[in-house]
Amino acid sequence: MTTNNSNENEATCPAQAMLKLVAGKWKPEILRLAVEQPLRFSSLLRTLKGSNKQAIAAALKELEETGLLEKVVIKQKPLHIEYYLTKQGHALIPVLQQLENIG
Amino acid sequence: MTTNNSNENEATCPAQAMLKLVAGKWKPEILRLAVEQPLRFSSLLRTLKGSNKQAIAAALKELEETGLLEKVVIKQKPLHIEYYLTKQGHALIPVLQQLENIG
DNA sequence: ACAATAAGTCAAAAAAAGATGACTACTAAC
DNA sequence: GTTAGTAGTCATCTTTTTTTGACTTATTGT
């Protein structure tokens, strides 16, 4: 493993940091869906064919931790939790759309 | 799990496809450098601290195969090979710059 | 009490990405 | 013919991501 101490490598392209926030199999799709309406766990699970709870949970957690989604707990009968795009999350949407147009 | 046989998973966000083309530790940086001048293997190796031949070779190969870079062999004394941004590669640059501005 | 829905967690296995070391092919200079 | 420079390849190992199965917590309905 070569446990190196000092700070080595780290490709330092500034776009890299933002790319990492949306990297992953489900994150771009989840962000795209979040534009239309607040997201819920079970509804994502139904919508994203081929996904599973763990994948959704991990993606939502990371998107929340990196500040692209905000989690809102709604204390009601069946217990609802909603995820909203943050300001930064919204800022990302047009960029994702431009990527689509290049492809 | 719900192992459905028909066509499984594949997150079908259109931006995903383009994101995959620039995914990886070195690709965004390489594209960024390609804007300034044609790229050469050994010069990339020197410029990208923390990289190695295999990483550079793999990145260049993938960027070429996906049509973002074009490889040009220059038969001269020490054998030169240059990589140029394609039209699609160029189209990606402003999008990468926008990503930086969000971060 | 028991099952169902919603929203997860934990651990482990499998697959993909990244890192490391040794080796190849061509030309050119000495 | 040995050394040096450029541009790689191949096999292996490690790390990270993704997938899979089993279990948890809370509330509602019967």
How does the SSE layout of this entry go?
The structure is a homodimer of 103-residue chains.
Chain A: H1 14-22, H2 27-36, H3 41-47, H4 53-65, E1 69-74, E2 80-85, H5 87-102
Helix pairs in contact in A: 2-5
Chain A binds a DNA duplex (30 and 30 nucleotides) through residues 1-2, 24-25, 40-42, 45, 52-58, 77-81.
Summarize the structure.
With 103 residues, chain A is mostly helical. Chain A is built from five helices and two strands; from the N terminus they run H-H-H-H-E-E-H. Chains A, B: Residues 13-103 form the HTH hxlR-type domain.
Account of the 3D structure:
The structure is a homodimer of 103-residue chains. Chain A is globular. Chain A has helices at residues 14-22, 27-36, 41-47, 53-65, 87-102, and strands at residues 69-74, 80-85. The termini of chain A are far apart. In chain A, 28% of the residues are buried. Mean pLDDT of chain A is 89; it is low at 1-9. By secondary structure, chain A is mainly alpha-helical. Chain A has one domain: Arc Repressor Mutant, subunit A (Orthogonal Bundle), CATH 1.10.10. Chain A has a two-stranded antiparallel ribbon. Chain A has 5 helices and 2 strands; from the N terminus they run ααααββα. Chains A and B meet through α1, α2 and α5 of A and α1, α2 and α5 of B. The structure holds a DNA duplex (30 and 30 nucleotides). Chains A, B: This is HxlR family transcriptional regulator. Chains A, B: Keywords: DNA-binding, Transcription, Transcription regulation.
